[in-house]
Write a structure and sequence with these properties.
19% strand; elongated; RNHCP; two-stranded antiparallel ribbon; alpha+beta
Length: 141
């Protein structure tokens, strides 16, 4: 059974209270994704490319009709230090947050986390000049 059709098979809210042990093939990278190794009862994204599908309006409800690819666009750290991936649907733009699974690709997670530092909204060559304009001495040392 594929995860696009799960909401048609079970009653509304079933996956909020029941673990999901089904495997699926990632629509982006084509890898087989199994529930084992996720560290939780619910596998909701590919551990290789971190992409998901827009199948939920609320976690576990399988009520979304969109079905678009949810691409990872960022990470954030929850209160107790747990990381979560921020996904954005390529089709409708909806944002969602999913906790990082135990077997997620650490290099992919780090590359997403480093994107804002690697591509700042200003040219790095002008950091000294901008520091002087803000009242600093402009020294990088």
């Amino acid at each position: 059974m594929n995860r696009e059709n799960k909401r048609k098979t079970f009653e509304k809210g079933y996956y909020k209270t029941h673990p999901c042990s089904d495997s699926f093939t990632c629509k982006v990278c084509g890898r087989l994704v199994v529930a084992a190794g996720a560290g939780s009862d619910h596998r909701n994204h590919c551990p290789n490319c971190l992409c998901s599908l827009h199948v939920d309006e609320e976690p576990g409800d399988r009520a979304a009709d969109c079905g678009g690819i949810m691409e990872p666009i960022g990470v954030w750290v929850r209160k107790r230090g747990e990381w979560a991936v921020i996904h954005r649907c390529k089709r409708c733009g909806k944002l969602s947050s999913n906790r990082v699974a135990a077997d997620d690709n650490p290099m992919k997670l780090m590359s997403i986390a480093m994107q804002p530092l690697c591509t700042p909204p200003f040219p790095l060559e002008r950091v000294e000049e901008m520091t002087k304009l803000m009242g600093g001495d402009g020294s990088m040392k």
